[in-house]
Design a protein that fits this description.
By secondary structure, this protein is of the alpha+beta class. About 45% of the residues lie in helices and about 15% in strands. The protein has 15 helices and ten strands. It has a four-stranded antiparallel β-sheet with strand order 5-4-7-8, with no helix packed on it. A three-stranded mixed β-sheet has the order 9-1-10. It has a three-stranded antiparallel β-sheet with strand order 2-3-6, with no helix packed on it. A hairpin with a 4-residue loop joins β7 and β8. α2 packs across α15.
Length: about 475
């Protein structure tokens, strides 16, 4: 049979209707496509990215010192800025005295066994504009009064048992004024005044409402940058204070800034610790599974021994060994405890994968072609376990974050004033009934972070499962 040059000419390309309907995808490309179909996993991925941006870029955008205390704005609810009245510091009010009224009751009144009950003070009024630096009240003198008792409440009293917080009694019956500067905050207060003859207090009282405005001194406004030096403002003017979107804590510190700083602490421990102990567990499990035999048995029995060690007890021992005193932060002790005690689970998982992979045909072929042990582990076995390792990492991160939060909550982790989400929850728990936002926001960040990483881990587990390819 003779061949001609035409027999070796290239064939013409024609459309192959029986060809593949779509190009072949790699393992990771196929996993990414399946992950994008999981809406919960994608949403969780965006939340994780947002948390990382909040942690890294947030302090550059929200330039508020997380340690700066502002005792004028203690436990403020979330706000976008409030108005404040400028006042002079150290302006003392001289208590008014009724010179025409005696300092005490008459002898005849005291000698009368059936003396009538003293009347309630009349013409009770607020002097000046009440603000958080002081509320001044004044009244007309009551006949035969030896002194007056002043009370404060947050609602209008209707009977003597509802008068509220006793402030101070006056020194004489002719002192007919009082200035309250005891822990005031912006809002409504009800002041009540009763008269006493020095022996018994009258059940009759006068009450007045005071709408207290937030006030700051001019010196404080200049120091904190609320007003510019040389500006034409003074006492009596109204300025607008900076916003606190998440409110302030019990020391007047901005919660948003502390949440950002706390995220750096919580996510540092929550990410660095799992990465370290998963890397160690991967190396341990890969080596044990690849070598096999007695070495494998000895290494895994040691892993079983580490699993039996109580985490909290050794956490305390690491704190003591590292010289951490009571009230000091123990971040190093938390990292050491996690790395030393939490790697066996990863080692077991990787070892099981290696035992399965080392019997595969492509590994045997690579061995016959002269590949040494190091090449087989780094080139074939570890890459084929990356899916399992990645899923393990996404589940380990929320566990580490919750562990740090729990340890800080019980006082074994990060100590004040360094913020972490756990320590902020501990601080917020003390005033949960009056200022719930101090506990709500750090607890919400912990919950959202843990939930997002768990849902992302579920999505990665399904996406990286090679058996799912045949079901689609």
């Amino acid at each position: 049979m003779q061949f001609t040059p035409d027999d070796f000419a290239p064939a013409e390309k024609t459309a192959d209707v029986h060809g593949l309907s779509r190009p072949s995808l790699s393992y990771w490309e196929d996993a990414w496509l399946r992950l994008k179909k999981n809406k919960r996993a994608v949403a969780s991925l965006w939340i994780v990215i947002g948390l990382l941006l909040f942690t890294v870029l947030g302090p550059f955008l929200w330039r508020v010192d997380s340690f700066e205390q502002n005792l004028d704005r203690i436990s403020q609810p979330p706000n976008l800025g409030v108005e404040a009245l400028l006042v002079e510091r150290g302006s003392r009010w001289d208590v008014p005295v009724d010179a025409a009224h005696p300092q005490g009751p008459s002898d005849a009144y005291l000698a009368d066994p059936d003396r009538p009950e003293l009347a309630a003070p009349e013409n009770l009024r607020v002097v000046g504009e009440p603000n958080t630096w002081g509320v001044r009240i004044q009244w007309d003198a009551v006949e035969n009064a030896a002194k007056y008792n002043i009370y404060r409440n947050t609602y209008e009293p209707t009977k003597p048992s509802e008068l509220g917080l006793p402030l101070l009694d006056t020194l004489a019956g002719n002192e007919v004024g009082y200035e309250d500067a005891l822990d005031l905050s912006a809002g409504e207060y009800w002041y009540s005044v009763t008269a006493t003859d020095g022996i018994r207090e009258s059940t009759r009282f006068a009450t007045i409402r005071a709408d207290v405005r937030l006030a700051v001194t001019l010196q404080t406004a200049l120091r904190r940058g609320y007003v510019e030096a040389g500006s034409n403002v003074g006492a009596g003017d109204v300025i607008r204070l900076p916003a606190h979107p998440f409110g302030t804590d019990a020391l007047g510190r901005d919660l948003l800034a502390r949440l950002m700083h706390g995220a750096q602490t919580s996510l540092f421990i929550g990410i660095v610790a799992p990465v370290l102990y998963i890397l160690f567990g991967t190396a341990w499990g890969a080596f044990a599974g690849f070598i096999g035999g007695r070495v494998d048995a000895l290494m895994m029995r040691f892993a079983d021994f580490v699993v039996a060690l109580p985490f909290l007890l050794f956490m305390i021992l690491f704190r003591v060994a590292s010289g951490v005193e009571a009230g000091e932060s123990g971040m190093a002790a938390i990292l050491i405890a996690m790395v030393v005690l939490l790697w066996p689970a990863t080692a077991r998982l990787v070892r099981g994968q290696i035992l399965q992979i080392r019997e595969e045909g492509y590994v045997q072929a690579a061995r016959l072609m002269g590949g040494d042990d190091r090449y087989l582990i780094l080139r074939h076995m570890i890459p084929n376990t990356l899916g399992v390792i990645l899923v393990t990492l996404t589940f380990a991160i929320p566990t580490a974050i919750f562990t740090e939060a729990f340890l800080s909550f019980i006082g074994m982790g990060v100590a004040p004033p360094t913020p972490s989400w756990g320590s902020m929850c501990l601080d917020g728990l003390k005033s949960i009934y009056n200022t719930p936002h101090e506990l709500l926001f750090p607890a919400l960040f912990i919950s959202v972070t843990v939930l997002a990483f768990n849902l992302l881990g579920d999505g990665l587990r399904d996406a990286l499962d090679a058996r799912m390819r045949s079901k689609e």
